[in-house]
From TrEMBL:
Mg(2+) 4 binds at residues 43, 57, 88. The lineage of its organism: Bacteria, Bacillati, Actinomycetota, Actinomycetes, Motilibacterales. The keyword tRNA processing does not apply. Mg(2+) 5 binds at residue 230. This is Thiamine-monophosphate kinase. The keyword Metal-binding applies. The gene is thiL. Substrate binds at residues 66, 281, 325. ATP binds at residues 135-136, 161, 229. It comes from Motilibacter rhizosphaerae.
């Protein structure tokens, strides 16, 4: 159990406290950003929509599928839940404006866990200067967290998955494969391993999406963009099919990511290329820009767009067994 939970003086369960007391305790930890005209406490929140259009995205995290309470603290789960949604907003080239959270929890969940979850959501939202403006709470057999993020396009067109054209360059912002390496470490469950590669384990529990690169790439004229949630090859496959183009990745441009995982992979007897090309949950941003585009800070070229059958290839590297996560496979 995490330090935040143990440090809380009283640890009643949500059954003992009751829904409304937990909601009050949680919303008390969620101060509102300047974009919020009416925050938690009424039937709905009211948030400014500066652009007149609203970007909206939602992702569900299920205990045992997306996180484990014995691997991650409540604070880390909250950060990750917010991060993966905020990354989806960035992947449209938008800036987030607010977040709404649904929490389903077993009756014996400590209230302190729900409070730390709120702290984690608040902490990650603060990275992009937004707040949690509301949510819902109900009972379930395991913890389920449903996050919805809203965003603002600042007057630009959304950057979709379908605008890549032959001649464009493939670009990435953020690191690849780190979450998959961390997942492998947690699956082994060896304390020494987790300690030796603590940074990678932490990268699995709390991803660090390059939020600013989304709007920056949109401003620069990006033709396609998404975040890497399932695995680079699978995610870029959506761009290839959506745009009707072939993406040729340059192995040399991905070698830094592979090198950063090499020691961990060696110790685990695993292939770092499989993590970089097929590992999910880094929430890096990947997409395409016209050749000659001035690249925003933190954005690197990893390949090129050519005419051909819509697929993603990495000449010289064996295709990993898994090109990405599928919840049902
Ligand atoms: N149950 C659903 N009902 C309606 N639309 C859905 C549903 N599930 C997914 N979608 C839509 O399908 C598209 C792809 O969803 P997907 O969840 O794969 O994208 P993502 O959220 O970027 O990735 P990830 O969930 O891996 O982080 C999105 O536009 C999403 O809104
Ligand atoms: C306990 C535990 N086991 C496995 C994983 C790995 N995992 C779960 S979902 C996902 C991709 C995105 O899924 P979705 O498309 O559902 O958002 C990955 C790589 C994890 N995070 N926690
Ligand atoms: Mg999704
Ligand atoms: Mg996405
Ligand atoms: Mg997915």
């Amino acid at each position: 159990m995490d330090a935040e939970v143990q440090a809380t003086p009283t640890t009643p369960t949500v059954r003992e406290a009751g829904e409304f007391a937990v909601v009050a305790a949680v919303t008390a930890r969620l101060p509102q950003s300047a974009l919020v005209l009416l925050g938690p406490g009424d039937d709905a929140a009211v948030v400014r929509a500066p652009d007149g259009r609203v970007v909206v995205t939602t992702d569900v995290l299920v205990e045992g599928v997306h996180f484990r309470r014995d691997w991650s603290s409540a604070l880390e789960v909250g950060r990750k839940a917010a991060a993966q949604n905020l990354a989806d907003v960035a992947a449209m080239g938008a800036v987030p404006t607010s977040v709404v959270v649904g929490l389903a929890a077993p009756a014996d969940l400590p209230v302190a866990w729900a409070e730390s979850l709120a702290d984690g959501l608040r902490t990650e939202c603060a990275v992009v200067s937004v707040s949690v403006v509301g949510g819902d709470m109900t009972r379930a057999g395991q913890v389920v967290i449903s996050v919805t993020a809203l965003g603002d396009l600042e007057g630009r067109d959304p950057v979709t998955r379908s605008g890549a054209r032959p001649g464009d360059l493939v670009v990435v912002a953020g690191r690849l494969g780190r979450s998959a390496a961390g997942l492998a470490l947690h699956l082994r469950g060896d304390a020494g391993l987790l300690q030796r590669h603590a940074e990678l384990a932490a990268a699995h529990r709390v991803p660090a999406p390059p939020y600013a690169a989304g709007p920056a790439l949109a401003r620069a004229g990006a033709s396609a963009l998404l975040d890497t949630s399932d695995g680079l090859l699978q995610d870029l496959g959506h761009v290839a099919r959506g745009s009707g183009v072939r993406l040729e990745l340059d192995a040399a441009a991905l070698e830094d990511d592979v090198r950063a995982l090499a020691a961990c992979a060696e110790e685990l007897g695993e292939d770092p290329w499989a993590w970089v090309l097929g590992g999910g949950e880094d929430h890096a941003l990947a997409g395409c820009v016209p050749a000659g585009t001035a690249l925003p800070p933190g954005v690197r070229v990893v390949g090129r767009v050519v005419a051909g059958s819509p697929e993603v290839v990495v000449p010289g590297v064996a295709r990993p067994g898994s090109t990405g996560w599928d919840s049902y496979r």
